[in-house]
Amino acid sequence: MQSTVANVMTTGVSSVTEDTGYKEIAQTLLDQGVSALPVVDARGRVVGVVSEEDLLHKEEFKDTDRDRNYWPPLRARLRSRLTGAGGVLVERSDEKAMATTAAELMTAPAITVKPDAAVVEAARMMERRGVKRLPVVDAHEGLVGMVSRRDLLRVFLQSDDSIAAAVQNEIDYLAGTVKGTDIAAAVDNGTVTLTGTVHHRSTSHTLTRLLNRIEGVVSVDNKLTWESDDLMLPYVGL
Asked: Which is it for the CA torsion 118, 14, 42, 44, positive or negative?
């Protein structure tokens, strides 16, 4: 059974409202020991996320007016550009450097995930959207927790015994449906080592794919031997 976001998320997380001021946001980040906070509207719905990076825009650009020789870091200059109509890059003022409230500072709209989403789905969403954390929301977009990349790593902390039990279930099922299987498995620090024999090479490959899907499995060392290589196309002479 795959773990869901609800199994690994952090609950009881702090949030700020759209009108929360810059200093209060910074203080909350420090007090809570987190790098980002969800922003909720008057109805309690998550509308954005404000992070340390959002607040640091002000630091990057604060000397611009005082010192005409000041040149912001490359990442800051890149963020001061956006894509306009037709894909043309156009300049804009660095709004976040002048922002004073969460509504002005936050990244919006919020990229969120539901509690019943699979951990792998959350991981793919983070990778696809380039974010490090996701607010977890209910059916009404209300905040119920936060899940971070670090939280997702918890699925790999399962004991070798629990992984071995799941591996053995797959082997037992295979032995009951495919003839000619004699397989043993050992698990050490999440690595599964397979030994024994199967009739077809394809059976060995299928088992490896199935075991790699088990949560907590780091890798599969397949040392199985086979009697018939049904993956190699037969040679046809001219």
From this structure: positive
